[in-house]
Structure formats: structure tokens, C-alpha cells
């Protein structure tokens, strides 16, 4: 879907062109693989298999590389998906708790759920950029699981709250430590997977959020019935907070062993020395630069390129096209119409059908379900940023952090205007706002696509010009040699 940005840049922001006398590592690797396909397992059949439209089909990938990618899928992709699962289980539980007894038990008014969400979002925004800087210096296998352990303990503490103010305070710190995960996960995915592999893995990683939403609904139904009133705790306390801690702890501990860090410094037990060399070569082949010393030049490199501005606007629109994570239009519509609240795990929808509203109930069900398709845009835009900024690891880390932080900076207050809880279940202005946001999203996506194509075209022209100059120099040198002889 997205093209690879192949240019490298120096500290001044100028593009570094490859040496025309040197052979591209990608070409060398592809030539060697095509010449020995019977030995390394690369396919000689030029036709792409049917499953290539669903999964990877790289003709140049050797058997060894396929095995390496499978290792990444089973380890890195799995632990990231599980981590995102517990993060979204926590976020989903707040929305579910509000409609499952927390509002009545803590005597909350209609908009205090918005304040709880603002507290979480504020912490989430504040923590992102510092975390991305830390990530360029500290091993992800230490930083990410440590933060997961802290947010797990804070989530458990929510079971002891007796007022909405206590919930607001704890949710701020939960947001602070959860802020590290999403941009860090995409940075790590972009450090190991090639462009042909990255988009699919990013979407699988993001799909774990939907799994958390569905699991949250089933957990609510089971725990609320079985534990409501036990040991003086309400069902929403047992199910939404204590059970979160029980589920989260083993996943956080596993992260200390399963995160492979980055190709240049990995010490993962499941990767041998050949795997480490292959990981570095794969990233070099696609122009994905390793980390280097972090200095003030990174500010010039980031803020003198269009990447950070266009990609940030793109992500702000995506994040704010719908309601906040604590407001579930479907859940509130179900409650207003006396449907069972256990059905709240069926997602949100922010499209034209719901803006019109005066439609059959069956069409509303369809609208709520179909709206979740738009969520795929989030991980794909992060993958796109990984490719556009791939030639500068520090820029890539900061741009991913700025995109996510900016999106949630607007999300801290904008949903209170577009989707206030008092408008439930109609949300007239919210659904019309979402319709306009999707139109703006199309415009900015087209703009970024054009800018990337323009840069790639310029880099290609500069490379051709450099090659032409070198060819002329070689010809002049050859004539001089003939004259001397």
C-alpha cells in the first residue's frame, strides 16, 4: 500500500546518495539467492501463489529468512500483541465499568467519565516523547515490561477507590506509564520487519485491541454474576480491575525475556548469531538505518522536513474522528433501549448512517459493526511513518511519538465537545463531526502520498544525475590514460 522511502539523510538534512560504483546489498542478495534457489529454498516459479494476496510472498526470501521471520512472528509479534491486549483491556474496562455500576456506586454525574478520560489522556500525552527518547538509550526489553508492571499495579489499586476523584488521580498515572507502549511497539516493529511485511504485522498487533474489547465483554458477564458482592466488592471492581491484574502480571514478566530489543543490540535467547547478522542486513537492504548518537541535530532533522507535520495532522484526524475510549455510543444506545449490557463488546461506529440516525434498528447494528473497519487506518499510518522516516532511526522514533502524542493531546478535550456523555445515545453533532473528519482524513492521506512520491522522484533524479557525472569522469579518465600510453 505504501511505498518505501529509500533516501538517507545527513545531520544537516541533505540527502545522502548511494555510491554508484558500489553494488546495492539488495541486488547482491537477490542475485545470490536467484543463483542458488535449489540450495536456499527460494522459489523459481515466477507466478505468485494465491495466498500472496493475504500473506507474505517475497520471491527473494530464502528458506533461512523465512524461518527467521517466523521466529519474529512467534516471539516479537506475540509479546507485543499480548501487551497491547492488556493495555486495551484496561481502557475498555473503564467504559464498561461506567455502565455496569461504577456510576451509581461512586455517585458520578454524566460528564465525570469524560474527566476520568481527560486525566488518562493527559498522562498519556505527557509521557510519550520522553519515553521515545528513553527508547533510543534503554533496551526495550527492560523499559517496556517495567512500565507494564507499574500500570498493572496501578490498575489493581482502582479496586479500592471510593470516589471519582481517586479514580481520576490513578487514571492519570495509568495513562503516564501506558503512554510508552503504542509508539514504542511500532518503532520496534519497524526495526525488524521489511515494508512488505510490516503493514500486516502492524494490523495483527492492532487487532489485539479488538480481542481485548470482546474478552472484556465476556469477562464482565462471567465475573459480574459470580463475584458481585463477594468480600464487599462490587462486580465491576472484581471484573474490571482485580482480574486485570491477574491477567496482566504474567504477560509483563514474559516481556523481560521475549522482547528482542533492536537488531544492532539484540540478546534474545531465540536468535543466534546468524539471525542477528541477517536482521541487520535485512534492514540495511531496505534503507532502514540503525540508531546513532542522539544530539541536538535531531531537532533540525525532524522539524525541517515535512514528515513530522503532515504525518502528525494525519494521525490527529484519525484519533479524533470518533469518541474517546471511555465513551461507547453502542453501549449507551443499548442501555437506553434496555438491551443487555453484556453486549457492549461490539465496537463503536462514527459514520454517516449514525449521523442520520433516523434509520431502522437493524441498520444501526450494521453501522456500529462496520465502523470498526476504519480502525485499520491507525496501524497502517504508523507503518507508513516507519517507511517514510526509515533512513533516520531517531527521527522515526520521535515522529512516531509526536504523531501519537499530538493525536491524544487533542483527544484530551475534543471528545468533550463532539461526544459529551449528556448527548447519549443520539450524539448528533458527534456523528456529523466524524463524517467530516473522514473526508479530511482522505485529503491529508492523498497529500502525504503525493509528498512521498515527489521526494522519491527527486531522489531518483539526483541519483541519475550523480551516475551521469561519474560516467563522464570515468570516460575522461580513460581518454587521459590513452593519451599517456
So what's the overall shape? globular
Distance between the termini: 55 Å
Oligomer designation: single chain
Question: Could you tell me the strand content as a percent range?
Answer: under 5%
Number of helices: 19
Radius of gyration: 25 Å
Strand order of the largest sheet: 1-2
Main pleated sheet: 2 strands, antiparallel
Say how many strands there are: 2
Question: Averaging pLDDT over every residue, what do you get?
Answer: 75
Q: Spans with pLDDT under 50 lasting ≥5 residues? A: 1-45, 339-351
Structural summary, described in words:
There is one protein chain. With 485 residues, this protein is mainly alpha-helical. It contains 19 helices and 2 strands. A two-stranded antiparallel sheet has the order 1-2. A hairpin with a 5-residue loop joins strand 1 and strand 2. Helix 4 runs antiparallel to helix 17 (393-411). It starts with 7 loop residues before the first strand and ends with a helix.
